[in-house]
Specification:
The protein contains twelve helices and six strands. It is an alpha+beta fold. The protein folds into two domains: 178 residues, no CATH class; 90 residues, Serine Threonine Protein Phosphatase 5, Tetratricopeptide repeat (Alpha Horseshoe), CATH 1.25.40. The strands form two sheets. It has a four-stranded antiparallel sheet with strand order 3-4-5-6. Helix 10 runs antiparallel to helix 11.
């Protein structure tokens, strides 16, 4: 009898985590993103570090603490005692997207700081959710006194006026002004865990694409295809990255899948032309 046990590859492990929406393990899946770059990473150790932080925080919490007191204690612990904050000087460093590094350095980008903050907040039974706010991921907490929107880089609560000011550049870039304007509240909907993870990956995608680091970009695209299996754009972008690396045999299936799903897309002709070139190369 063969009793050997084959350890799953990092990508197979990640695929198992993101397969279902029920009980989606956002913290674990986000921590697992770093396994391509840090081959020896033990994700369970990362989860254990977060559990230890939560245990420390709970020891400071009075049993009958109301939600507002829990929120204040969390922010004191996270931003002041532990010193978490935005990595302003090295914002585009890929390490800002790797939770185990953020835990060590106490520096990250809004979305990774938010994921850690949310794990602690929910561990304190706070009604906290992430917000896919344009340009800067946010978190919100529902309190008896009302909803509070917080910048995860600083812990600062933001008024409607401040949120509107932050939205202004995005609205102008996209023509969402005057008759096309929409209320701020539409930008404050709770983000689903799958969408939060996709945003983490797309941050990395943009870094690697800008640097034309095709091998790392493909690693990120492999994960995005798993997280968003119905999004043909991620298949397209993986195929184009394979083409840049000189592997038409891998590029062609992805581009074919994209065109089969989105043959009326604005870039369909351009992608089709690239696909024909790759077919000729691989034949």
């Amino acid at each position: 009898m063969d009793l050997s046990f084959q350890v799953p590859s990092p990508l197979d492990y990640f695929a198992a985590l993101v397969r279902d929406d029920d009980g989606f393990p956002l913290l674990e899946a986000t921590a697992a993103v770093a396994m391509d770059e840090y081959a020896e990473l033990d994700v369970q150790t990362v989860l254990g570090e977060v559990d230890q932080l939560l245990a420390r925080l709970r020891r400071r919490l009075p049993v009958d603490a109301p939600p507002l007191q829990r929120l204040r204690l969390l922010n004191q612990f996270f931003y002041h005692d532990l010193g978490f904050g935005g990595n302003i000087n090295h914002y585009h460093d890929p390490d800002n997207s790797y939770l185990h590094v953020v835990l060590r350095t106490r520096r990250g980008i809004p979305i990774t700081l938010a994921i850690l903050w949310l794990e602690l907040a929910q561990g304190l039974a706070l009604q906290a959710k992430g917000i896919n706010f344009p340009g800067h991921f946010m978190v919100k907490v529902n309190l008896p006194q009302g909803q509070v929107v917080i910048d995860p880089c600083t812990g600062q609560s933001l008024s409607r006026e401040e949120l509107s000011q932050r939205l202004e550049p995005y609205k102008r870039r996209n023509g969402l002004v005057d008759d096309f304007d929409v209320p701020v509240g539409l930008y404050l909907q709770a983000a689903q865990p799958r969408d939060v993870l996709a945003r983490v990956l797309r941050n990395l995608k943009e870094i690697h694409r800008t640097q034309e680091d095709w091998p790392r970009l493909i690693g990120v695209q492999d994960r995005l295809v798993l997280v968003l299996p119905d999004d043909g754009v991620e298949r397209r972008d993986r195929g184009l990255a394979w083409a840049e690396l000189g592997h038409p045999e891998r590029a062609v299936p992805d581009l074919e899948a994209y065109l089969a799903q989105a043959d009326d897309a604005a870039d369909a002709d351009a992608v089709g032309q690239r696909l024909n070139e790759l077919r000729r190369t691989s034949s």
